[in-house]
Write a structure and sequence with these properties.
This protein is mainly α. The chain has helices at 2-23, 29-51, 61-84, 87-94, 99-107, 114-130, 139-162, 169-196, 207-212, 214-237, 240-247, 250-262, 268-286. Helices cover 78% and strands 0% of the residues. α1 (2-23) runs parallel beside α11 (240-247), α4 runs parallel beside α13 and α6 (114-130) runs antiparallel to α13. The relative contact order is 0.25.
Length: 287
């Protein structure tokens, strides 16, 4: 069951990342975050009411609130990085968020083994190479890599927090609902502040573009929610390291989608860097 739920997490996160990256190429990233998460809140709210999950409210929901605060910042950074592209580089770098659970383990007394030390070195090398030749003197590529690393830290934090937010399936529904409500509040506040500073809340085509994209926005929001849920279940059902390794394969899904749909072609050094980042992630998770 752990493997099944963790692989489902990879599929859902990979498709959500691909969809979010495409949407931010024509809709402001903050708007994508707020609208997609609002649609997810509506669905989760219905589930919470139908299952009576609100009866499991407790102090552990503060972990969900924490995940909800960190999540929008991570998604915004990641969607902006995906919009800069190429997805085949950005997505594998995003999987480096597994460093966060590893670091939490170190703080509580765990000591890294040889695979983890190797993973750190391989991951750093992957980050350097993934920028490709454009990294030198190319601010767009440099910015994409930086945004992705910020997002990775946020994703890792969300994974660690949401895994602690519930112990039952119905409790997980409530935790995910609280997380998404917090996402909307934080993201909405950021969107409001952006508009006050002169930023755009709507794309050039106006509200019609957002309305036309509602099915895709709903898919992105719900796929991300489902991925958080399946990962939490996978981590509870079996070893966290197994769940983390299999869940970290989601960049492969995004890269394959980008190659199949967008016909992206990576330079050899970029492909090597992206691959090394993914290998480093696996080594960190399995150490």
């Amino acid at each position: 069951m752990t493997a099944l739920f963790a692989l489902a997490t990879s599929l859902l996160w990979g498709l959500a990342d691909f969809g979010g990256g495409l949407l931010t190429r024509r809709i402001p990233a903050l708007t994508v975050v707020v609208v997609s998460q609002t649609l997810a809140v509506l669905v989760l709210g219905t589930i919470v009411l139908a299952t009576g999950a609100w009866t499991e409210a407790g102090p552990q929901l503060w972990y969900a609130v924490g995940a909800g605060v960190v999540g929008p910042a991570a998604m915004l950074a990641f969607y902006k990085a995906l919009a800069l592209g190429p997805m085949g580089v950005v997505s594998p770098l995003g999987s480096l968020g597994v460093v966060v659970p590893v670091s939490v383990g170190l703080l509580v007394g765990d000591r890294p083994g040889l695979p983890q030390f190797a993973g750190i070195g391989v991951a750093v090398l992957g980050v350097v190479l993934a920028g490709g030749p454009e990294l030198r003197g190319a601010p767009v590529q440099r910015r994409a890599v930086l945004l992705t690393l910020v997002a990775a830290f946020g994703f890792g934090s969300v994974m660690a927090l949401i895994a602690e937010a519930s112990t039952t399936v119905t409790g997980l529904f409530l935790a995910l609902f609280v997380q998404r409500v917090t996402n909307v509040l934080v993201g909405g506040g950021a969107l409001y502040a952006s508009v006050r500073r002169g930023g755009a809340a709507l794309p050039d085509g106006g509200p019609g573009v957002v309305r036309a994209a509602l099915p895709a926005l709903a898919f992105v929001g719900l796929a991300d929610v489902a991925a958080n849920g399946t990962y939490a279940i996978a981590a509870q059902q079996g070893p966290v390291t197994v769940a983390a390794v299999l869940a970290s394969l989601y960049p492969v899904v995004t890269a394959l989608a980008a190659r199949g749909v967008l016909k992206e072609r990576l330079r050899a050094v970029q492909a090597a860097g992206a691959g090394l980042a993914l290998v480093g992630t696996v080594l960190l998770a399995t150490g």
